[in-house]
Design goal:
Helices cover 32% and strands 20% of the residues. The protein is an alpha/beta fold. It has one domain: Alpha/Beta hydrolase fold, catalytic domain (Rossmann fold, 3-Layer(aba) Sandwich). Strands 1-2-4-3-5-6-7-8 form an eight-stranded mixed beta sheet, sandwiched between helices. It starts with a helix and ends with a helix.
């Protein structure tokens, strides 16, 4: 599984891990001046989107889960209460400036957006410049059940801080796209999900016992899958497998309501505006579809 994921991520990046380390930025701040840096991977500063925090309450915090501390970034319209909640699930590189900015984009649209650091117990993704080591030393050790519990705790925190726990959505990118499918099958509170190029199949193990394809009939909320036709790590054959599994789940309304959009010319990570994989048209269309999907599922 990790060889396939490493190949998928490496296909997005120019040069070697040495080059990635040489291009690392460690001091990129959010508009509030909080400490999220850019990912250690190559970025394109000239195209990275910068969403100001004007009119928002935004920043960092922590919550506790079973005695462990989980940091997070959040953003919400300032002074507003009873807000719909959107969980923003990190890509493989963790919670960094791109994820924080995405939270601010959702906040501008009227959501309380929260992105917990789901690797918090296993390590700091920002310290890695080698994808292989990141996968082996951090990502491979993050259990799905731990992630589900941390996302539940994020919802609870949001509910105590201006969010409406009856209106919960989840969206995620790459690693987080897979988690989006899993959380939509896990939580009774979630109303809608949008999975950006998340893996749908994989080998089962103690850390990742099931994958989205195996959970199609267990969905508790409909998911919109946004995928790239040129994604070297997620073949469209697996998207078709997932479509078939959803269609076969006749008694599951969430599965029947789930949909896919494939952007024929887009690669993996086409929403990641700080990387060469970014495709502006697909990214903007996908985000507009995300907001529309949430609205039609009762989030707005």
């Amino acid at each position: 599984m990790f060889d396939a994921l490493k190949s998928q991520v490496n296909s997005l990046l120019p040069g070697s891990s040495t080059e990635a380390g040489a291009t690392r930025r460690t001091a990129l701040k959010t508009a509030l001046g909080v400490g999220y840096a850019a990912t250690a991977m190559p970025i394109m500063a000239q195209t990275a989107i910068k969403t100001p925090a004007t009119g928002l309450a935004a920043g960092e915090g922590i919550f506790d889960v079973d005695g462990s501390t989980v940091p997070f970034y959040y953003a919400a319209p300032e002074g507003k209460k009873n807000l719909p909640i959107v969980l923003v699930v990190q890509e493989i590189f963790g919670v960094h400036e791109y994820i924080a900015d995405t939270c601010r984009r959702f906040a501008k649209a009227g959501y309380l957006a929260i992105a917990p650091d789901l690797y918090a117990r296993q390590g700091d993704a920002a310290k890695y410049t080698d994808i292989g080591k990141l996968l082996a030393e951090v990502v491979s050790k993050v259990p799905d059940d731990q992630v589900m519990g941390d996302l539940d705790a994020a919802v609870a925190w949001a509910g105590e801080n201006g969010g409406n726990v009856k209106k919960v959505a989840v969206t995620g990118f790459c690693w987080g796209g897979r988690i989006t499918w899993l959380y939509a099958a896990h939580s009774k509170n979630v109303k809608a999900g949008v999975a950006w190029y998340g893996r749908l199949v994989g080998a089962s193990n103690a850390v990742n016992p099931k994958h989205p394809l195996e959970l199609a009939a267990s969905l508790k909320a409909p998911v919109l899958g946004l995928y790239g036709g040129q994604d070297g790590g997620i073949p469209l054959t697996t998207v078709n497998e997932m479509k078939e599994a959803l269609a076969a789940a006749k008694g599951n309304a969430a599965a029947q309501a789930s949909e896919f959009v494939v952007y024929p010319q887009a690669p993996h990570a086409f929403h990641a505006d700080y990387r060469p994989s970014y495709r502006k048209d697909a990214a903007e269309d996908g985000f507009a579809r995300t907001l529309a999907w949430f609205k039609t599922k009762g989030m707005a």
